TrEMBL record:
Alphabetical list of Gene3D superfamilies matching this protein: HAD superfamily/HAD-like
Entry's transmembrane regions: none
UniProt xrefs under InterPro entries: HAD-like_sf, HAD-SF_hydro_IIIA, HAD_sf, Heptose_bisP_phosphatase, Histidinol-phos
Keyword Metal-binding appears in the UniProt entry: yes
Protein family according to the UniProt entry: Belongs to the GmhB family.
Molecular function GO labels: metal ion binding; phosphatase activity
Chief location bin: cytoplasm
Protein name: D,D-heptose 1,7-bisphosphate phosphatase
Keywords for this protein: Carbohydrate metabolism, Cytoplasm, Hydrolase, Metal-binding
GO BP of this protein: carbohydrate metabolic process
Pfam families: Hydrolase_like
UniProt key word Protease: no
Length: 209
């Protein structure tokens, strides 16, 4: 089975533009191309998983997304790399009264769908993101997680280290790493993967503080 690195889009793979609907406003994160080339060279599939509640909110039409993701793909191809799939949730948050769904992160729906469609072993996969829902998505999918300090990552770092669940995971040894940016995240994954083959799972948590 394949291994994947799941990538949050806004604030992780590309610069965060709230409710981005204009392809010309897409900017890759600094070092994004280099990071993805590195992850690709480690044999990972690259899968974007993004919450796009702007669709449910009526801020833009779902048909705008292929153009935006086409622009992301175009910028990545200029960097010599591509992603294997884009998955998005078009729904709104149930806590704001939108109908519930199985795909809005932190629900694991997009990860499960990707694992079925692309043959991904979630337990041997990773998630990189900048928000608490990305971390919870990783936990719900059984992936390892790297928080990036881009987008809203620094704020998340403060919030997440106070999560009771994270303290639990610390005890159980679930991996939670913090990286300055996507390039550093790729470095952590590379390091952890080489440690994995050497030690068969002897990971330690990198304290977010
Ligand atoms: Mg994000
Ligand atoms: Zn959804």
């Amino acid at each position: 089975m394949a291994r994947a690195v799941f990538l949050d889009r806004d604030g992780t793979l590309i610069e965060n533009v709230p409710y981005l609907s204009d392809p010309s406003a897409v900017r890759l994160s600094a070092s994004g191309g280099e990071a993805l080339r590195r992850l690709r060279s480690l044999g990972f599939l690259l899968v974007v998983v993004t919450n796009q509640s702007g669709i449910a909110r009526g801020f833009f039409d779902e048909t705008a997304l292929p153009e935006i993701h086409g622009r992301v793909a175009e910028l990545l191809s200029l960097e010599g790399v591509s992603v294997d799939a884009f998955y998005h949730c078009p729904h709104g948050p149930s806590e704001e009264g939108f109908p519930g769904c199985q795909c809005r992160k932190p629900a694991p729906g997009m990860g499960i769908r990707a694992s079925e469609e692309l043959g991904i072993d979630l337990r041997r996969s990773w998630m990189i993101g900048d928000a608490p829902c990305d971390y919870e998505f990783a936990v719900n999918c059984g992936c390892r997680f790297v928080l990036v300090r881009t987008g809203r990552g620094k704020e998340t770092e403060r919030e997440i280290s106070a999560f009771p669940a994270v303290r639990e995971d610390e005890k159980s040894g679930t991996m939670f790493f913090v990286a300055e940016d996507l390039r550093a995240a790729a470095g952590i994954i590379e390091q952890a993967e080489s440690g994995f083959s050497a030690e068969r799972g002897g990971f330690s948590l990198i304290d977010p503080s």
